Amino acid sequence: MEDGSVCSCGKNEFGQLGLGDSIKLSKTPSQIMGLPKISEIYCGDNNTFALSVTGDLWAWGLNTYGQLGIGTQENSFYPVMVKAPGDIKLVAPGPEFTYLLTTNGSIYCFGRAIYLGLGYEVNKDKEHYISLPIEHPFFNREKQCSQITCGTYHSLALTTTDGFLWSWGECAYGKLGNYSIVLPPDPHHPILRGFEVNPIIIETSLPGTIVKIISGSNHSMVLLSSF
Questions:
Q1: Pairwise CA distance, residues 42 & 19, whole Å
Q2: Are the beta carbons of 61 and 46 closer than 8 angstroms?
Q3: Could you list the pLDDT tens digit for every one of the 227 residues in the chain?
Q4: Full-prediction pTM beyond 0.85?
Q5: Chain centroid to CA 140: how far?
Q6: Distance between CA 222 and CA 209 in Å, rounded?
Q7: 87-227 has which CATH code?
C-alpha cells in the first residue's frame, strides 16, 4: 500500500498473517496492526519479514528453529522487532532458516544451523538452533556478498570480492553445482550425511557474467550476461 501499511490473507496456522492467534483463516486482506511504515516485505514458508523505511526488521509466524531471529523458538502471531543490523539490503527466508544481506556485503543468519553453512564444528555433536542474528563467519566484510538465495535446504551466494559462486546445504540431485549427489555417510555423525556444512565454490566455466542467482526446492539457476 502507498502509505507503507501491510495487509495479509490466507492461512494463519502459525501466525504467518500477523493478525493474532484468534484468526485461523482470512479470505480477504486485513491490515496488520502495530507495524511502522514498511518499505519491503518477504515471505518464507510459514513466516513473514517486513523491513521498515527506517531500517528496522520485523518478523512473525513459524519459529520452530529460531528462524524469526527474535530470540525464542516460539511462533509469533504478531509482528516482533528483530535485533538485526540497521543496514539490511535483502532478507532471504528459507523454511527453517533465514539470511540477512547487508549493504556492506556481510551476511547475518539464524535458524536451523545445519543449513547455514557455519562449518563442521558447529554441527558435529547435535543439532543447533540459532535464534538471534549472528554474522556469518565466512561471508563478512573481507568476503563480501552481492547476492544470496536459499531453496528448501540449500543456499547460494555470489561474492563481489572474488566473483565466485558458492553453495552449501543439502547435496541431493546435484543442486549444489559441484557434481556431488550425496556426501559419503559419516557413521560418527549421521546428522551430517548428505549435507555440505561449509560454503564451497561452484567451479565451472560459465559463458558470461552472473547477473542473478536463484534456487528452487531441488534445483539452482543463474542468469548470465555476456556484456
A1: 16
A2: yes
A3: 578 999 999 999 999 999 999 999 999 999 999 999 999 999 999 999 999 999 999 999 999 999 999 999 999 999 999 999 879 999 999 999 999 999 999 999 999 988 898 876 665 556 789 999 999 999 887 789 999 999 999 999 999 988 899 999 988 888 898 765 555 445 544 445 577 888 999 877 788 889 999 999 999 999 998 75
A4: yes
A5: 16
A6: 10
A7: 2.130.10.30
Q: How far apart are CA 35 and CA 19, in angstroms?
A: 11
Instruction: Say how many C-beta atoms besides its own lie within 10 A of residue 122's C-beta.
Output: 15
What's the rounded Cα separation, in Å, for the pair 135 and 63? 20
- How far from each other are the two terminal CA atoms of the chain, in whole angstroms? 36
Domain coordinates in residue numbering, the chain: 1-83, 87-227
How far is residue 30 from each of residues 18, 40, 46, 169, measured CA to CA in Å? 10, 18, 17, 36
Q: Which cell is 163 given?
A: 566473483
